[in-house]
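User: Watch each token:
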Amino acid sequence: MKKILFIATGGTIASKKSENGLKPQISPDELLSYIPSLNKICEVDTLQLLNLDSSNMEPRHWIMMEECIKEHYDVYDGFVIAHGTDTMAYTAAGLSYMIQNSKKPIVITGSQKPINMDITDAKTNLIDSFTYASDDKSQGVSIVFDGKVIAGTRAKKVRSKSYNAFSSIDFPSLAVIQDGQIMRYIPMLPYEEEVRFYNQMNENIFLLKLIPGISTQMLTYIFSHYDAIIVESFGVGGIPMSIQKTFYDLCAKYPDKTIIMATQVAHEGSDMTVYEVGNEMKVMCNFLESYDMTLESVIAKTMWMLANKEITKENQEDIFYKNINYDVIFGKNRIC
């Protein structure tokens, strides 16, 4: 029987009502008391690492999770992390870069309703997570939620209240779980490299969301204070003419800044070569492009890259487009 470490970090799944609304209060042992059939699936030890509403989750907490898993990696066959849903996709992406080539599964789950409610998705999500974490074919970082197994870099929360809160963006779910049975859509090829742990993230990045009529007023401050700027653009990506000159001048003034083009559109990604507003600026400002990556993965990967001393300005593009846990499917060599 597989031995799994259950790491609790708070979230809705562990919440009880308080005077000001739901608040994480339920211990990991109490969480497991709601699923007594778990002893037929695996052996579980528990650890209360954090007790946060996931809106308060930060990269420093991802580092705590990475260090916890690294410390216990040789002792356990897999890991299940209970987490709030609001930033779950960010944490899953962050851990995908901080723990690479893991032959042991690292499963993140949670729920839309607390586990102590009469009607809740928490019990099913927990049972499915331990089922998946106990399977010989499971590996790497993933989210298990509402019967779906989603690669850690492809998940996005698309519904705020419904049980089917997460979608796998422009990539199939790795598997589905029904009645305790795992049906895999994507074959798991064993990692050839050994597991690698990274415990630093550079949070000094700025997400610039374009809106119609955006002003140049803040651009000088952003370029002078942040190591990377991720532009969340309209459609396939471009810089509006109203700020193009200022944007280009700042790119020329700060050539060492990492500039990345992403998109506000959830599906089908960016391609700056399509329109004039993007094509010229891509060359002039040396943009990297998110292409089919999720915004959560772009943010986490940029934090990881900037903190990784092995990655320099010269090899940054190659690393950004390197496929890590299914994060880049087409990339700059996209075929559609």
